[in-house]
Amino acid sequence: MSPIFNIKNIVVSNNKAITAEEIISLSGITIEENLFKIRLGQVQKNIKENAYIENVQIKRKLPSELQIIVEERTPTYMLEFVNSFVYINNQGYMLEVSENKLEVPIIIGYETSLEEIKAGSRLCKNDLYKLETVLSIMETANSYEIGNYITKISIADKNNYTLILEEEKKTVYLGDASNINTRIMYLKEIIELEKGIESEVFINGDINEDDVYTREKV
Prior knowledge:
This protein is α/β, with parallel strands linked by helices and about 220 residues long. It has helices at about 20-25, 40-45, 125-145, 180-195, and strands at about 10-15, 55-60, 65-70, 75-80, 85-90, 95-100, 105-110, 150-155, 160-165, 170-175, 200, 215. The protein has two domains: about 5-70, membrane protein fhac (Ubiquitin-like (UB roll)), CATH 3.10.20.310; about 75-215, Rossmann fold. The strands form two sheets. The chain has a nine-stranded mixed β-sheet, with no helix packed on it. Strands 1-3-2 form a three-stranded mixed β-sheet, with helices on one face. Helix 4 links the parallel strand 10 and strand 11 (about 200). The longest helix is centred in the middle third of the chain and has 19 residues, at about 125-145.
């Protein structure tokens, strides 16, 4: 084949967490390879070995440029793991194990085995089921502008999801998180009325005022 189609330039776009250099290295492509000898499917597979990469598009731009367009997964929660943190996204994919703590809620009480805690793995079936409830809790909390208060979420008991609001010094018991809009509405009212008071908040019964109460810690 004519050397006019040999790769002179590799352009990576849409990447944030992973550097262009890392992506090019994963691709296995080198400068001066012929554009038409590259197996695009294999290149996509190579790049997706990195857990942050969800989708990849490879485009040839004649005569000598290869374009790599990636779609990355975004860490939205963390797991506590030994002395480090495991970043996960909304689909329960584990993206990275790191000592650095992100400003995202920590999920505790998970069932996924320690052997499965590694980049590229996914939460176990039971945890994925509970993650759907976590997403609903956080979406509703954000709509009431209190999501940023939630630092930890315990999924140990699917019948009693527990929120920890460290800045507000509150532990909140949400029951099975049914009727979540009403539960979060009550929680916002309690936060506003008992600002900074260390307490336990019980919203895990039936959703009426008599079943919602707080117990101040002493």
